[in-house]
Amino acid sequence: MMVRAESMQETREAAGEAAGAAVRTESADADRVFLLGLGFDNTTERGCIERILGALDEGRGGWMVTPNLDILRRWTKSARFRELVAKADVVVADGMPLIWASRIQGTPLPERVAGSSLVSTLSAAAAERGKSIFLLGGDPGAAEEAAGVLKERHPGVRIVGTHCPPMGFERDEAAMEAIEAALREAKPDIVYVALGSPKQEELILRLRTLHPGAWWLGVGISLSFLAGRVRRAPRWMQRLGLEWIHRLAQEPRRLAKRYLVHGLPFAAKLLGAAVWMRLRGRGAAEEHRS
User: Fold this and answer.
1) pTM of the predicted structure, to 2 decimals
2) What is the 3-state secondary structure (H, E, C) of 139-153?
3) Of 32, 108, 114, 197, whose CB neighbour count within 10 A is largest?
């Protein structure tokens, strides 16, 4: 009973934090949906593509972050990570639990916007608009293989460079300078950074000031998906929010702690907070009517 009471208290506190964040930013972020305090852009995958390409046409760069459940969990626990995400221009929900939570609390997001999908769909649209792409990160050789797949699937796509930094690059100034030199030479419009979170966000923060006219997307394992090194879950599993089971089956040692120890309890906390927010909203509405 004590454990259950503590869990309920955590859920109420999380919902309270989310409500407070929504109130503080309501006027500035009317088009955002808040989950545990983090604001998500109320948009679709197509809307993201048009926003990026439209900004590029006008000479403006930007940064898109695609939090999934694990990234949202990190955001709630790390002040440094909250600082990083606050600097992004677009934040979209890459995870069905986040979509479910938005619906439960009565502020539904239109759809999941997955970074792994954007790598393909944005690249296809960029090919039609003549925008160039750079692939940064991934396992050794994955970026080159992914570039080959994109060129095969989307004739006319302009891949102007790939670069796989060595392990520990973030502590090696020579390795960092090599990344910067590669980007200076390529002058890309769009940069996919596939290094996992929060490493990719830290790198984007440093690099985007050197290339303010580019759009930056942290895409995690997406290059390995494209290259066929890691199999992505079937679409029906993605729609049902079961992609994590597919990933866990492929890499149990690496992902068991993330999904089972941290992910499932946090998902329960997120959904519980969404229920609490919904009930609070109904209570406030009934009080107002009376």
Assistant:
1) 0.88
2) CCCHHHHHHHHHHHH
3) 114
**Cross-sheet strand order for the sheet of 90-91:** 90-91, 62-65, 215-218, 190-194, 132-137, 158-163
Gap between the Cα atoms of 142 and 162, Å rounded = 9
Q: Whole-angstrom Cα distance, residue 197 to residue 200?
A: 6
What letter represents residue 257's amino acid? Answer: K
Cβ(281)–Cβ(275) under 8 Å?
no
Residue 7: pLDDT over 80? no
Residue type present at position 38 = L
d(CA 10, CA 2): 12
The answer on pLDDT for 269 being more than 80 is yes
Burial of 88 (0-12, 13-18, 19+ CB in 10 A): buried
Is-contact 40 33, C-beta < 8 A?
yes
Closest CA to 132 of 143, 123, 141, 144: 123
- Condensed to tens digits (0 to 9), the pLDDT of residues 121-176 reads 999 999 999 999 999 999 999 999 999 999 999 999 999 999 999 999 999 999 99
Please state, in angstroms and rounded to a whole number, the distance separating the CA atoms of residues 66 and 91: 6
Task: Kindly report, residue by residue over 69-80, the tens digit of the pLDDT.
Answer: 999 999 999 999
Pairing of strands 32-35, 38-41: antiparallel
Using left for φ > 0, alpha for ψ between -120 and 50, and beta otherwise, residue 268 falls in: alpha
Q: Given a cut of 60, is residue 33 above it in pLDDT?
A: yes
Are 133 and 64 in contact, with CB atoms under 8 Å apart? no
**Which ranges constitute the DSSP H helices of 61-108?**
69-77, 79-86, 96-104
Peptide bond into 198 cis (omega under 30): yes
The pLDDT score that the predictor gives to residue 284 is 52
69-77 vs 264-289: helix crossing angle, rounded to 10: 80
> Would you tell me how many other CB atoms lie within 10 Å of the CB of residue 169?
19
